[in-house]
Design brief:
heterodimer; A: about 260 residues; mainly beta; 1 helix; about 50% strand; globular; B: about 290 residues; four-stranded antiparallel β-sheet
Chain lengths: ~260, ~290
């Protein structure tokens, strides 16, 4: 990586010389299917907003990546934690036929920390199972075979889901991982115990920023650069997804992201 | 892989998936009975994980990755309240035992039953020393509502022996009477039990002498270990606490280990100005110390 993160002066220089990539994002989301005590599905209800922001396939000369430097927004309905993340489709299951298609693995990223580059094989701490097409399935159990944070394969997670999960519902796979695992590098298989219709994807997220929304009343934003979280470089062509946790009601989101070039 | 040593270590291990990035949603069961001076002054509200919890019979804490192989040190805590202002904390609540507040026996009687699954004290690495006993805040959490008379107990045996082990590991005969705030104190109500003057908490509880009983009533005794702060003064507002660079406070989210056996524990939110159904949601992040 280049030196944009080495100092705030470098950030300012990158912003002023390259321009800030600013995008407004809005979306409407129907109600999703809440996790239940009988089918806890990762113990929190979430959603993925159906559209996302895909960065251009190529950056300008000398630009190695982009960094999220600002993220703010609100949701119409109260009660959600909204996370923006680089998202990777790790695997897809077509319920009809119980058919799995492998996606990508979590990437290697070069993190710029304290003036030096650290090459890291990433693993997601937030693997989210999303219904990208609504399910017709009665309290199904989803089994996900994955490679863990240490690169060990053939680990399994089982997610107990409610009946007929609505489109764009998302559930956190972390509480269902094998004992001792904390992250996922790749998904190598998915299968479901019941159902005739629907599509499930496992998205591996590298979180970049977050805000908490009180609906049209209040919003609290946490600056991406000021938390003790990895600042992931976003590569050309990568996609940013918007995920909301802690609410199942229909809602709308509007938010603004700003990216600065790594030069 | 070695234990954490610096900022680069923290960030690269998180990126490698050795960490925690946990959205959570906690909620209370309803409207607890407000505390009084005789019940420890505070009105404690415990928030368990919304999904899976039916208070007070089925309690579920926030679910992190199962069976972590090392400590998970907290790096960031974001909390918001979606129903009212909330000044509270993240905590681990350990179930120490139960107390029968309506036994058929005449008062005073020994009403406490220690959880049979473990022996205390609970231990973790403290200031670099492994297996050090930790100090907990004792709380009484009502699981069966009281009726007719507000029960009362003292942290001692009826015969006059010790009722708890204090922060220094000494057995202590309590003298303070805890009285529930109302003859009808509702389930899900929670109060701080007061140890003797000069004591800051307990390592274990061994007996409670019930001096006044109700016609119904039962409670769980929790020992609570603070993890970090939450503060959200209005609906939809949140607070973020940087546990690394905002004043180093990287507390261990993985529960402490008992001397023998297995202790039941819950990663929860709680506040000290409770009342009414409330909901706390947020994000808990951490890094595995490996």
């Amino acid at each position: 990586m280049a030196t944009t993160l080495d100092s705030f002066d470098n950030l300012i220089s990158a912003a002023t010389s390259q321009g800030v990539y600013t995008r407004f994002f809005s979306g409407t989301a129907a109600a999703v299917t809440a996790a239940t005590s009988a089918n806890p599905a990762g113990y929190i209800t979430g959603r993925r907003y159906a559209n996302n922001i895909t960065l251009p396939n190529a950056f300008g000369t000398g630009v190695q990546a982009a960094y999220l430097t600002a993220f703010s927004g609100t949701t119409f309905a109260a009660g959600g934690i909204v996370i923006v993340a680089i998202e990777y489709v790790l695997g897809t299951l077509t319920v009809s036929g119980n058919s799995f298609a492998a996606g990508v693995s979590m990437p290697t990223k070069i993190l710029r920390i304290s003036g030096s580059n650290q090459s890291v094989q990433t693993a997601t701490l937030l693997p989210i199972v999303v219904a990208t097409a609504a399910l017709t399935a009665t309290t199904p159990t989803l089994t996900v075979t994955y490679t863990n944070q240490s690169g060990t394969g053939l680990k399994t997670a089982t997610l107990s889901m409610p009946t007929n999960v609505a489109i764009n519902t998302g559930y956190n796979l972390i509480p269902t991982l094998a004992t001792g695992d904390t992250g996922v590098q790749a998904v190598t298989n998915m299968s479901i115990s019941a159902g005739t219709v629907g599509t499930l994807k496992v998205y591996g997220l590298l979180p970049l920023g977050m805000f908490v929304s009180g609906g049209s009343v209040n919003t609290t934003t946490i600056g991406p650069l000021t938390t003790p979280e990895p600042i992931y470089p976003i590569a050309a062509g990568e996609s940013l997804g918007f995920y909301e946790f802690g609410t199942s009601v229909a809602s709308q989101i509007s938010c603004l992201i700003s990216l600065v070039a790594d030069i | 892989m070695s234990a954490l040593t610096n900022r680069t270590d923290i960030l690269t291990k998180k990126a490698r998936g050795f960490g925690l990035y946990l959205p959570f949603e906690d909620a209370t069961g309803g409207s607890p009975t407000a505390g009084t001076a005789n019940s420890g002054f505070f009105t404690i509200t415990l928030y368990f994980n919304l999904v899976g919890t039916t208070v007070p019979t089925t309690l579920v804490g926030n679910q992190i990755a199962p069976g972590p192989t090392a400590s998970i040190f907290s790096t960031g805590q974001l909390a918001s309240c979606q129903s009212a202002g909330n000044e509270g904390f993240f905590a681990i609540a350990y179930k120490i035992g139960t107390v029968d507040l309506a036994n058929a026996a005449a008062t005073p009687y020994d009403g406490f039953t220690h959880d049979a699954g473990f022996t205390g004290p609970l231990k973790r690495t403290v200031y670099g020393a492994a297996s050090k006993a930790i100090t907990l805040i004792p709380m009484v959490y009502l699981t069966t509502a009281t009726a007719t008379t507000a029960p009362a107990f003292i942290m001692k045996t009826t015969a006059g022996g010790a009722g708890y082990v204090n922060q220094a590991g000494s057995n202590v005969i309590g003298t303070k009477t805890f009285t529930f705030p109302a003859a009808t104190t509702v389930i899900d109500s929670c109060f701080v039990m007061r140890p003797e003057n000069g004591d800051t908490g307990v390592q274990d509880i061994t007996q409670l002498s019930v001096t006044v009983k109700g016609t119904t009533g039962a409670a769980t005794i929790f020992g609570v270990e603070f993890i970090g702060p939450q503060s959200a003064l209005n609906i939809g507002t949140g607070s973020y606490h940087d546990m690394v660079f905002g004043g180093l406070n990287m507390t261990d989210i993985v529960p402490a280990v008992p001397t023998t056996g297995t202790v039941t524990s819950y990663l929860i939110s709680f506040n000290m100005n409770g009342g009414g159904t409330r909901q706390a949601l947020g994000l808990l992040t951490g890094v595995l110390n490996t």
